[in-house]
Amino acid sequence: MGTKRQHDEVESQGAASGKRQKSYIGRKRQAQEDSGAKKRIRAIERSLRRNRDMPANVRIDLERELASQKQIMLDKAYKKKRSTMISKYHMVRFFERKKASRLVKQLKRQLEQESDADKAETIRRNLHIAEVDETYTLYFPHLETYVGLYSSTAKKGADEEETEEGKLAAAKAALEAERPPMWTVIEKALADGPPALEQLRDRRSPDDTGEIDTTQPPIR
């Protein structure tokens, strides 16, 4: 029995050691790749500064490579920050999306059952708000700090939503809550269609228009 325990312990330690080694190698490899790209960028910039009389074709090739290397570094930084921000605001976006989706379903049912024209028009307006809310939770720019839609009504709603009347009151409060500035931006993008929404969600800064930069030479 003692021998078997020793064998298990060695095997377990070996497995644990293997996991640590694999994780360490992965991190080290990534660091080496990033370091290599940074060194290459510095080397190209140094060469361009020091060799003013280099042939034009060589300079063009180096400038293109420099632009390519810088773009690679920017893309890596973007993906890293995007992943961090998605993880950070995942839960609040998830719960707000559920709430908005529930509002959309409730209002659609009400609209189907409503025969009064004036009341139906009010429901349509509220339905539009709820649909934009739902879109907001999906397409709010990933790289920007997420501003909640229902934060001012969340605490009150949590206590009241146990009954049907409470649910209706919470829904009404949510529809009447003040919307953040990004809401109108997303409302417009929703009207413009899916490509506009995707461009907004993936933008890298508030000034990002999604247009292609034609000032740089093409990278081949």
From TrEMBL:
Pfam families: Efg1
Superkingdom of source: Eukaryota
Record carries keyword Cell inner membrane: no
Iron-sulfur is among the record's keywords: no
Annotated spans, Disordered: 1-40, 193-220
Composition bias, Basic residues: 19-29
Main location: nucleus
GO CC entries: nucleolus; preribosome, small subunit precursor
This protein's UniProt keywords: Coiled coil, Nucleus, rRNA processing
GO BP: maturation of SSU-rRNA from tricistronic rRNA transcript (SSU-rRNA, 5.8S rRNA, LSU-rRNA)
Record's compositionally biased regions (Basic and acidic residues): 1-10, 30-40
Subcellular location: Nucleus, Nucleolus
Function: Involved in rRNA processing.
Family: Belongs to the EFG1 family.
Annotated protein name in UniProt: rRNA-processing protein EFG1
